[in-house]
Design brief:
Radius of gyration of chain A: 28 Å
Shape of chain A: flat
Structural class of chain A: mainly alpha
Oligomer: heterodimer
Number of helices of chain B: 17
Strand order of the largest sheet of chain B: 2-3-8-5-6
Radius of gyration of chain B: 31 Å
Helix content of chain B: 40-55%
Strand content of chain B: 15-25%
Strand content of chain A: under 5%
Distance between the termini of chain B: 30 Å
Order of helices and strands of chain B: HHHHEEEEEEEHHEEHHHHHHHHHHH
Helix content of chain A: over 70%
Number of strands of chain A: 0
Distance between the termini of chain A: 12 Å
Largest sheet of chain A: none
Chain lengths: 381, 450
């Protein structure tokens, strides 16, 4: 997914020529189309694989059929209305009911046919209805189930990732100026702490702040019962947000700062930066025009990839903090064998990723004059 | 050989490398110890065992060394039995050859500030028809003798001190206070525990020639062993010890498998080029779309929770990651270099070029990446276990987490239960991360300058 950073000779050979600008448009269009087709292809295969896995290659059907059989048999035997029926009549009734139900769920068609149907629905974002799960409002629409969880996830991942991203870029930039200082060494020393995932720090934070000092809640989204006053509600949510967000931030902070710092240091040893310093430009000017500008594409890529990971949520961190987000919903859906919810959340991620990667190529061309569109894909620098 | 020596002399200049290596060596030592002292089948049997295996242990007991940090000394559990000689037993034959007297006396020092939860004696007697007879006496440090019980003994009998109504009557206390009554100082106004040597005297009489009496004396205190126990009375030392080789095996195999396979695939792709390379690129992009954790959870829920299946799926999903692109772009460069051309000129096969010329040049990049990726896989095992997808039979660190977390160990202040696996996970993670960090700086000198 790297962009083509070849300064290919033919696109530079005839500057300003009318013919070349036209061919450039054609090239850009052809390139975009190729990228679009390849991204679409990727998404289709990725989603189809997920559908296959989420149905255990069709085994989930057997589970569902058995369950339909059990439920209907139970319901008819327990129902006093049918008590007077003969055994044969009951068996017939059960059989017809089971067949209707199987037919209704579309289980009578072979799995391959249905999986293509699932794929078509998924690709057209027709997410369908969940098999078992319900939203808090009682709806079985996958779209509503996911939408209901989205704000909680966005609140947690959004707050923590944005603080993490901008915080570490900012700190890294100022550290790269004072390379070798005390704080620089502290960051280097602590960067191995990022080997542990957020939930791990989460458990420590719960232990310290919730269990021992009892100043912050163990988990959840708001106090129970939830406050009526919107202001109190917001404050309660904020209070619940502190620990999970800190867990996420702490777990990647040091490594993130370290990586950015190294990255900025490599760029600040370039000749043109030395030149700018020699010219007597202020540190701020050197930073913004000679260090940040050429690193902008990388910063943007990282930011864009970060934005799409917001969607997936943090399954385990949400589980540990009982945070009612998308991650925990996906985990629950898998436990229920609820294929539509699993596929629904995957397809949205796949689309977001594909769109972001596709758009990034254009953003590169906008912010980095060195990037030129080359004809034909595949090649790398 | 000399280059290896040079490498090590450079490595030990990094304190983080030394610390990292000592941690890894320590963990390897623990693994070897665990694997040699507890065979695999025994570990699984103990871990899956219920009350029948772990009856001697109290539930939820913190480790015994807690006493060292507390003014109030809590009783530490122990158990002794006649079968292995830890509970001394003497058999005296009488004039009648059918009858013999069995004396079991156990003296122990009790220097704690609390009474124990429970005292139990498990009797076993291999009689055929005539019941044996036992009487139990309790001697306190101030030489008071308390008669506990007298009873007939069939093949098996469990005697619990607090459950004996006659003893409660004799001591004039409720069931919950039996222990206090046995251990308290009668002269103390504050009902303090009398410290000193207590004696348990069991006198048994067997009325059959071949029969003898065996007993196991168990004291359920508040603390237990080096690591404490969990909700199912299991000694946590077992999963802590045995989890070490499993965590190392999982982490190392996953890291090795992933990085070596990634490297080989990237090398082959860039060497052969064409559709093969294109295919690898497309697979990498598809893999980026697949939700990694969700697929692992699905495999765990639908197919198998075996650690080794999980390992395989983890490797499979991690091969086609972003690093394949990094490696590929470096291979594309080195593919054009003159020594490769020379190899081609003398007619080296593709396999030879890939494995003998392309890949060895990447070792400096491979090794730090490999070492640094171990912690994430070790933590992955714990993460999966926390989601309830841990291996169903193996005792692992993650399983302790799972049990502790879902039993509310954090809410009920049973911190040792969570902290023990956490600290082990943490030192494992940091050990590998620190070594990887130092290796990265040695192999990639460019990092050292900045």
């Amino acid at each position: 997914m790297t962009s083509e950073t070849t300064g290919s000779s033919d696109s530079e050979s005839t500057p300003g020529g009318k013919k070349s600008s036209k061919s450039a448009v054609v090239r850009v269009a052809r390139y975009s189309l190729l990228r679009l087709v390849s991204m679409m292809f990727t998404v289709i295969i990725g989603v189809y694989l997920t559908i296959l896995i989420a149905n255990m290659g069709g085994y989930v059907d057997t589970i569902m059929r058995n369950e339909i059989r059990d439920n209907i048999t139970q319901a008819i035997i327990a129902n006093p209305v049918f008590r007077n029926l003969t055994t044969e009549a009951k068996a017939d009734l059960i059989q017809t009911k089971i067949e209707t139900e199987i037919d209704r769920r579309g289980l009578n068609k072979p799995f391959v046919v249905r999986s293509v149907g699932y794929l078509k629905n998924a690709l057209t974002l027709n997410l369908g209805r969940a098999i078992y799960m319900k939203s808090d409002q009682g709806s079985k629409e996958v779209r509503l189930i996911l939408l209901e969880r989205l704000p909680a996830t966005l609140l947690l991942t959004g707050t923590s990732y944005l603080i993490l991203f901008f915080g570490s870029v900012y700190i890294a930039l100022s550290l790269s100026r004072k390379y070798g200082s005390f704080w620089d060494k502290v960051i280097i020393t602590f960067s191995p702490t990022s080997a542990a995932p957020p939930w791990f720090y989460g458990i420590f934070l719960i232990l310290i702040f919730a269990a021992i000092f009892k100043i912050l809640p163990f988990g959840g989204l708001v106090n129970s019962p939830s406050p009526d006053n919107p202001l109190d509600y917001g404050l309660s949510v904020l209070k619940h947000l502190i620990l999970p967000a800190s867990a996420v931030i702490i777990s990647s902070m040091f490594l993130s700062i370290y990586n950015w710092r190294t990255f900025f240091l490599i760029y600040s040893s370039e000749d043109y930066v030395e030149m700018a310093k020699a010219k007597g430009l202020t540190a701020r000017d050197v930073e913004s025009r000679y260090i940040l500008r050429p690193t902008l594409p990388t910063i943007i890529t990282n930011f864009a990839l970060l934005v799409i990971t917001l969607w997936t949520g943090l399954t385990i961190t949400e589980t540990v903090f009982l945070w009612p987000g998308l991650g925990i919903t996906l985990f629950r859906a898998i436990g229920f064998y609820d294929t539509p919810v699993i596929v629904g959340s995957t397809i949205i991620y796949a689309y977001l990723l594909a769109i972001t990667v596709f758009l990034l190529d254009f953003v590169y061309a906008l912010v980095d004059p060195r990037v030129k569109v080359s004809s034909g894909g595949g090649g790398s620098k | 050989m000399t280059s290896l020596k040079k490498f090590f002399s450079e490595l030990i200049r990094y304190p983080s490398a030394i610390l990292g290596m000592s941690i890894i060596l320590f963990l390897l030592g623990v693994s070897v110890y665990a694997l040699t002292t507890i065979p695999y089948s025994e570990a699984v049997r103990l871990w899956r065992g219920g009350e029948d295996v772990w009856y001697q242990n109290p539930k939820y007991a913190p480790p015994a060394w807690f006493n060292a940090f507390s003014d109030k000394k809590k009783p530490v559990s122990f158990s002794v039995k006649t079968i292995d000689g830890s509970l001394p037993k003497t058999t005296t034959p009488s004039t009648d050859p059918e009858i013999s007297t069995i004396d079991i006396t156990y003296a122990f020092d009790y220097a704690y500030d609390d009474s124990p939860q429970e005292l139990m004696i498990y009797f076993k007697s291999d009689i055929i028809e005539k019941l044996s007879f036992v009487s139990i006496t309790w001697i306190t440090p101030d030489e008071r003798t308390i008669r506990i019980a007298d009873m007939a003994l069939s093949n098996k009998l469990t005697y619990r001190f607090t459950q004996d109504a006659k003893l409660q009557k004799r001591l004039k206390v409720e069931s919950a206070d039996v222990m206090q009554a046995l251990f308290e100082d009668p002269d103390s106004p504050t009902q303090a525990i009398q410290k000193g040597e207590y004696q348990l005297v069991i006198t048994g009489t067997s009325f059959e020639k071949a029969a003898t009496i065996d007993a196991e004396f168990v004291l359920h205190g508040e603390l237990y062993g080096a690591a404490g126990t969990d909700k199912y009375r299991r000694d946590l030392l077992l999963p802590l010890l045995y989890g070490t080789p499993i965590a190392l095996a999982f982490g190392l195999l996953a890291a090795l498998g992933t990085s070596v396979l990634t490297m080989i695939i990237a090398a082959a792709g860039s060497w052969y080029g064409g559709w093969f390379d294109e295919l690898i690129q497309r697979i990498t992009e598809v893999n980026l779309v697949l939700p990694f954790l969700a697929i692992l959870i699905m495999v765990g829920t639908f197919y198998s929770r075996s650690l080794w299946v999980m390992l395989g799926v983890t490797i499979l999903l991690s091969i086609f990651s972003g690093s394949i692109k990094t490696y590929r772009s470096i291979f594309m460069q080195s593919k054009e270099s003159s020594y490769i051309e020379a190899a081609r000129a003398y007619g080296a096969s593709s396999g030879r070029i890939i494995f003998s010329y392309l890949i060895p040049r990447m070792i400096p990049l491979l090794i730090p990446a490999l070492v640094s990726s171990v912690p994430s896989f070790v933590f992955l095992e714990a993460s999966l276990a926390l989601l309830g997808l841990g291996d169903p039979v193996l005792p692992t660190w993650g399983k302790i987490f799972y049990d502790a977390f879902y039993d509310g160990a954090l809410y009920q202040a049973r911190y040792y239960w969570i902290l023990e696996p956490a600290i082990l996970l943490m030192i494992t993670g940091f050990g590998f991360a620190m070594l990887g960090f130092a290796l990265d700086r040695i192999f990639n000198p460019r990092l050292r300058d900045v």
